[in-house]
Design goal:
Largest sheet: none
Number of helices: 2
């Protein structure tokens, strides 16, 4: 079954929004960690964990949503 252009654009927008939300969460976590007095490598590590966790959670929610719609 070929994908329509509307479906492709919608998937691209959801992917972009997911990455943007995960990036904003990572920046916030990194800044809060740095403001608490942690070193830069520690802040970067916490930001990476926040990015990965947020992206994983969004992916899981989207997968459940897509399977519920089918």
């Amino acid at each position: 079954m070929p994908l329509s252009p509307t479906t492709v654009i919608l998937l691209a927008l959801v992917l972009f929004a997911s990455v943007l939300l995960a990036l904003l969460t990572a920046v916030g976590a990194g800044l809060l960690t740095r403001m608490s007095g942690a070193s830069r490598p520690t802040a970067l590590l916490r930001a990476g964990v926040a990015f990965g966790g947020t992206l994983t959670l969004i992916t899981a929610v989207l997968a459940v949503g897509i399977s519920a719609l089918r």
